[in-house]
Amino acid sequence: MQPITNMVKKFQHDTRKILLGHGSGGKLTHQLIKSFVKKFRNLPLAKLDDSAVVKFKGKLAFTTDSYVIDPIYFPGGDIGKLAVNGTVNDLAMVGARPLYLTAAAIIEEGFSLFELDRIIDSMNRAARAAGVKIVAGDTKVVGKGGADKIFINTSGIGLIDSGVDISSKNARPGDKIILSGTIGDHGIAILNARGGFDFRTKVKSDCQPLNAMVSQILNVSKNVHALRDPTRGGLTTSLNEIAEQSGVGIEIEEEKIPVKEEVKAVCEMLGFDPLYIANEGKLVAFVPQNDCAKIMNVMRKNRYGRDSQIIGTVVSSHKGRVVVKTSVGGERVLDMLTGEQLPRIC
Amino acid sequence: MCLAIPAKVLKIENNLAQVDMVGVKRQADIRMISNLKVGEYVLIHAGFAIEKIGEKEAEETLQLLREMA
Amino acid sequence: MKFVDEFRDRAIAERIIKKIEGFDSFKANLMEVCGTHTMVIFKQGLKGMLPKNVNLLSGPGCPVCVTSQEDIDKAIALARDKEVIITTFGDMIRVPGRNSSLEQERADGADVRIIYSPSEALKAARENPARKVVFLAIGFETTSPLIAASLLDAQKEKIDNFFVFATHKLIPPAMEALLKSKELNIDGFICPGHVSVTIGSDAYRFIAEKYDVPCVIGGFEPLDVLQSIYMLLKQIKERRAEVEIEYFRAVHPQGNRIAQQLISEVFEVTDVRWRGLGIIPKSGLRLKKEFSDFDAEREFQPKVKRSKENPDCACGQVLKGVKKPTQCKLYRRICTPEKPYGPCMVSSEGTCAAYYKYG
Question: What interface predicted TM-score (ipTM) does this complex get?
Answer without folding.
Answer: 0.96
